[in-house]
Each structure stands twice: as C-alpha cells, then as structure tokens.
Design goal:
Layout: H1 3-8, E1 9-10, H2 22-36, E2 41-45, H3 51-61, E3 66-70, H4 77-81, E4 82-94, E5 102-113, H5 115-122, E6 125-129, H6 142-147, E7 150-152, E8 163-165, E9 171-176, H7 189-192, E10 196-200, H8 205-215, H9 221-237, H10 246-257, H11 270-280, H12 288-307
Parallel strand pairs: 2-9, 2-10, 3-6, 6-9
Antiparallel strand pairs: 1-3, 4-5, 7-8
Length: 309
C-alpha cells in the first residue's frame, strides 16, 4: 500500500466515554444487521445528537480499517475517486561511445487513487460524515457502487481500467443533518433509496445521564441528573431559538467537573457556566435583550429543578 493510502486509513479505537444502554444497543444492532445484508446505513440527526460517535462505533465493530470522508461544498467526484497529480519524469543519458551522446526522456502522468477508490478496492469500511454537505453531483458516483458494486473510473488512470469491481467486504456508513439545516443539500432520491436511514433523535433520560457521566469524571450522579433535567426542560419549553442536545449536557459536565464540586448550587460560577452554554449557545443572533430574556427563563428552570431535590 502506498504511503498516501496509509495516511487515509484510520484504525478506529473505542472511545473511553462511549456508553451502551438499551437505546444505543438497539440502534447499533439494527445498523449491524443492515450492513451484514450489504445495505449502507445512514445515521440522520440534528447537530449534537451523537450520530457521528455512533457511526464510528459501528465502523469499529466491523473489524475492518476505516476510511473517513467529510462532506464539503467544494467536494468533487475527482476528490472522492482520484485524479492526476503531477507527473513522472525519466531521463536516460547514453554516453557509451564518447563521441556520441544519446538522450531519452519520458514523461508520464501520475494518477493517485483517492479514499473512495481505496475503500472499494481494498474492502475497507467507508464512513462518509455529513455527506449531504457535498453537492449531489459529487455523490453521483456512489450510485453504481451501492447498487451494482461497480466504481466507474475516470479516463487517465495508469492501468487503463474504466471500471473497478467493488470488494465484497466493502461497507458504507453515512451521517448527515436533516435537509432544513443551513449548508445541507437535498439528497437525490436514487441515493436515498439505496440506504437504510436510522434517525438519531434525543436519547431517553437514562441514556443522557449515562453519556453525561461518562464525559464528566468526578462529577456526582446527582449533578449529572440535574444537568440533564435542565437541558430536557429547555427542550420542552420550546422558547429557545436553538434546542439544546446531548452535546450541551457534555459541555456542561466537562466544564463543571473542573470545579471539583460534589453538589450543584445554582449560583456563580455554576449559574454563569449554564448561561454560557445554554443561553449564549442557544441564541442565533446574540441580541442583548434576547439574551436577558433567555437568561431569566433559564434561571426559572434552574430554580424549578433545584426545588425538586
């Protein structure tokens, strides 16, 4: 394997903070079932819902090297499949007879396979993160890969092959946001029909507590429960411009764990940390008056949660 190819392949190690509850195990088991049947899996969810972490976990469990792609507006088919990058130059000088000099020069284009081609050829697992942030035409090459198991190669490849038969061990996992998100392109129906979509929504109460605890070493169980209670109350409130996700719980847990406290008391600096994460982080425009209103509502929610203890 070429050096360029080695750099593209990731050995995905299990994160120490990954938790497996009944809800998560159900998603993982269904994803593995579909992948075993040779269907690509698409984890769809809002930003911060944990879909990429789930995808990495499933990819690791497949036991194959993982090639990771990230969707981007500027992504093109050539950046997925490969392209000509530079050239090779060879010059031979023949001076066997002193009075005669003979030169031979040879130029050849240098073709480099990119990550999608390598995954298809070697039977690796492809993890295409935020795939629908790439333009639909860039992803058209996936259609024949996922249906017929054939990758069409551009002209100019060094071996002259126009088609590559996809390795039988090749598997594809996708993640993406719902189409109403900024920067997300509509997914072509032909590609969506080739996938099995698993919606990753907000997890159940016990799962969110377990995830928060895993990310917050030293923080008590009760403190993690209060964090989740406040975030879930904000979701139900519906008055915040951006709905907080499990990522907000993780942010709060990590920050509060640095204080070394055993019990949450909603006064400075704890209340300020909640405001930074849940008010400023859940406001789109940052208008001072809007922030004041949201801060007042957050204080009411924190007081209501604290009164239940």
């Amino acid at each position: 394997m070429a050096v360029e190819e080695v750099m593209m392949v990731a050995e995905v190690e299990p994160p120490e903070y990954f938790v497996e509850t009944a809800a998560i195990c159900s998603l993982v088991q269904r994803a593995e079932l579909y992948l075993a049947a040779n269907f690509p899996v698409y984890f769809r969810g809002v930003s911060g819902s944990g879909k990429t972490t789930l995808a990495l976990h499933v990819a690791r469990r497949l036991g194959k090297p993982v090639i990771i792609l990230h969707g981007d507006e500027e992504c093109s088919t050539s950046q997925l499949v490969g392209m000509q990058q530079g050239y090779r130059f060879r010059r031979v000088q023949d001076n066997f007879i002193r009075a005669v000099r003979r030169y031979e020069e040879e130029y050849s284009n240098r073709w480099v396979d990119d990550r999608l081609t390598i995954a298809c050829r070697e039977g690796y697992t492809l993890l295409y993160d935020e795939f629908n942030r790439s333009r639909p035409e860039a992803n058209n090459t996936l259609l024949s890969i996922l249906q017929e198991g054939i990758l069409s190669m551009p002209a100019g490849r060094s071996d002259g092959e126009r088609y590559l038969r996809v390795h039988p061990d090749f598997r594809a996992i996708f993640t993406g946001n719902p189409e109403e998100y900024a920067g997300v392109h509509p997914t072509q129906d032909a590609l969506r029909e080739r996938m099995i979509t698993l919606d990753v929504d907000n997890f159940d109460y016990e799962t969110e507590i377990a995830i928060t605890r895993a990310h917050s070493p030293g923080l008590s169980v009760g403190s993690c429960e209060r964090i989740v209670d406040i975030v879930r109350a904000m979701r139900q409130e519906g008055s915040f411009p951006v709905t907080p996700t499990i990522r907000s719980c993780v942010k709060l847990g990590r920050a509060l764990a640095q204080l070394g406290i055993s019990r949450l008391i909603f006064e400075s600096p704890v209340s300020d940390i909640f405001a930074d994460v849940l008010v400023s982080g859940c406001s789109r425009i940052g208008d001072r008056r809007e922030l004041e209103v949201l801060r007042e509502r957050l204080d009411e929610i924190m007081l209501a949660v604290q009164s239940k203890e």
